[in-house]
Amino acid sequence: MTHPAPAPASSPITVPCPACRTDAHTPLHAARDRWFDGPGTFRYARCASCGLTYLRERPAPAAMADYYPPDYVRRGKGPAWLLRWFRARDLRRRVALVRGLAGAGGRVLDVGCATGAFLHAARTAGLVIAGVEPAPWAAEAARARGIPVWSTTVDRADLPAAAFDVATLWDVVEHLDHPADDLRHVAASVKPGGWLVVTTPVLDGWEARLWRTRWPGWDTPRHLVVFSRSTLERTLADAGFRLSHWTYLSESYLLTALAISLAAKERLPSPIARGLRFVLHVRPVRLVAQPLFRLLDRALGGSWVTAVAQRVDADADNAGGDVGDGVGVGVDGNGNGNGNGNGNGNGNGNGNGNGDGDGDGDDRAHRAAGSEG
Ligand SMILES: [Zn+2]
Fold first, then answer.
1. How far does the centroid of ligand 1 lie from the alpha carbon of residue 233, in Å?
2. Ligand 1 centroid to 174 CA: how many Å?
3. How many other C-beta atoms are found inside a 10 Å radius of the C-beta of residue 5?
4. Rounded to whole angstroms, how far apart are CA atoms 84 and 81?
5. How far is the CA of 79 from the centre of ligand 1 (A)?
6. Which tens digits make up the pLDDT trace of 147-184?
């Protein structure tokens, strides 16, 4: 990749815990934008109070768009029919899960719906749909498909109370400035006994343990919080949802393909790194590799999980336990500052709802890992 000259990096900001606002923390590793070489070095921390791992030193909100370049959403190489098959399969899995929870004719809210690929498929399956999408261009594209969309952030959307059978966040929660607050807003719009489905990378999966600070799920600085199963479960509980179960819908092979691609990009001559990246991401390889990774995810606990949680009665006591991440992350502190950024961002104000430029829900599944080269 070639890049224009770095954009003038505005100073990073330092934030307290996005969930509980506690400032006390354990510093974790520093990291830079490994995939797009955006400017700056940022640092993670684990909250001393609630245990959440978050990007403590992060780009200022106005600078966040610089980290979502136009090629944020990428395509694998290989036959087009196979890409359509991947996309259709991912949508089918999502719709099947949600339709099973919502029941025939159920009402579904997709938060961060992008251009509406999932909602379009859900409607085709007989569900009643609505979306929230802060990126104006994406919201407009969803509306053009006849999808009702609140074109704002979820905390500002005038959502009806207790109206939806299922709310979904597909690879969105890790991009939110205040995920705990936003999930409370979502909870208010879900019927008691209704459901929440959240897909996100988690720290305690086998890929995260294997790759540690080089795990692509960090996706610095686009992922502002990185949950573990326990911190996600407690965040859901605090918002009013009781975890039902974890499942794996995403093509987790891509996390490993991306991890190897990034390591190669940093250590090998670029033609070799590009060739390796091509081989790892070529669609037939993905097709063959993914069943193995599904087995590994189920046996060892994968890093790209889908949490299924049920809305509890508003009166119920849903205080979570006091658990931390339980995952040590090595502090290597090596984030060198020679980013040659490509400050031509097309992102929106809060770094959410990017990608999906051609109305393809598959892309959003993969953007959690910034993947699909
Ligand atoms: Zn906290």
1. 14
2. 15
3. 9
4. 5
5. 46
6. 999 999 999 999 999 999 999 999 999 999 999 999 99
